[in-house]
Amino acid sequence: MAKILIVDDEIGIRELLSEILRDEGHDILLAENATAARAARNAVRPDMVLLDIWMPDTDGITLLKEWAANGQLNMPVVMMSGHGTIDTAVEATRIGAIDYLEKPIALQKLLAAVKRGLQRPQAPGVQSAPTLAAFHRSVPLRELRRRLEQIVGSSRVLLLRVGAGSLAELVARSVQPANAPWLDLAAVTAPLDINQLQATQGGVLFVGELARLSRAQQKNLAFALDRLERYDLRLVVATDRSLEALVGEGWEEGLLARLFEVSLAPPSIADVREDLPELASQMLLHLVEAGEVPLRRFSTAALNQLRNLPWPGGYPELRAAVKSLALGTLEEEIGAGEVRRLLPPDLGAGACGVSLDQPLREAREAFERMYFEHHLRLEGGNMTRLAEKTGLERTHLYRKLKQLGLQAGRRHEEF
């Protein structure tokens, strides 16, 4: 039969409901508060949830919103309350609850609500990535979420000032309404047209790094910017460059002025290192629920290993690592040994792998090759940013890469 999670802070209610539903043949899970409910929902993924509204730590409506925002409301939820109002019931239904039971709950009403809920087709998750709503224990991420909500309430355009370890995509996903479309403009190389904007109506347009857009993609960005209101779109762009630097690279100053009008500097992964285990766990949960990876969980030691890595590539690098670990690990639990075995070594955090038992010239050349390979990868082949990072003039940089047998990233600078 079905796995049903009962969430209520009153032990008498939990025991009564569990006894009734066990007699009906169901497997019952119990949670006394929202914290326990989150853990049970993530670990067991119940077929249905009976959720009390008034609880001491987090109320049921807030928990329901959290699940909806994170794409985790893919099971039927029936709300319960002894002090509810019509407005509360309407709000719960709007968020995604399928029914509302008033305490004391009549036996027939309970059984009828459970039957209706279990007969409903399973709803898919609404998002394939976490949002800031998932990180309710992190002070910096909660503060970021409040700032973000305040900004997007009055502006359709947001520029994120980021650096290494960027959380730009996590921020942008938090702007995306539930079940709304998402379009990464950096992935659109052909001219953008009205049909694409119509298909994304009500959703989010995203650019992970402005400096990587070609001249044609900059025109796409300007085209979309003029039509945000018409198609109810929000635009979130990120960059580690100043307005002046982008103008120097050939960007239209008027376009940049519009993009830089409202900006926010979110924390980097390094700034929220203590929250990284929770971030990795949420990523894994969403990948599992989206069917992209088999059922996996991280051991505490594995999460500690992930927390101690630098993640200069930020959110995309961490997500790729989590997916690789989930697909490459044979056991259900991902251990610290799997992290060491499956993830590439960090070239910037320890031994660089250059043999010291060779002449200085050869050792220096080996180090330089490793150094430039590392920064080419971090900068996505962007030569302007690579020149700034390494402190070399561009002509000298091209010559050095040629000497080392490395290919320059010209494809990222096409106009």
TrEMBL record:
Residues 3-118 form the Response regulatory domain. InterPro entries: AAA_lid_NorR (IPR058031), CheY-like_superfamily (IPR011006), Homeodomain-like_sf (IPR009057), HTH_Fis (IPR002197), P-loop_NTPase (IPR027417), Sig_transdc_resp-reg_receiver (IPR001789), Sigma_54_int (IPR002078). It holds the Pfam family Response_reg. SUPFAM superfamilies: CheY-like (SSF52172), Homeodomain-like (SSF46689), P-loop containing nucleoside triphosphate hydrolases (SSF52540). GO terms for molecular function: ATP binding; sequence-specific DNA binding. Keywords: ATP-binding, Nucleotide-binding, Phosphoprotein, Transcription, Transcription regulation, Two-component regulatory system. The modification 4-aspartylphosphate is found at D52. One of its GO terms (biological process) is regulation of DNA-templated transcription. It comes from the Bacteria. Residues 100-327 form the Sigma-54 factor interaction domain. PANTHER family: TRANSCRIPTIONAL REGULATOR (NTRC FAMILY), TRANSCRIPTIONAL REGULATORY PROTEIN. This is Two component sigma-54 specific Fis family transcriptional regulator. It comes from Thauera phenylacetica B4P.
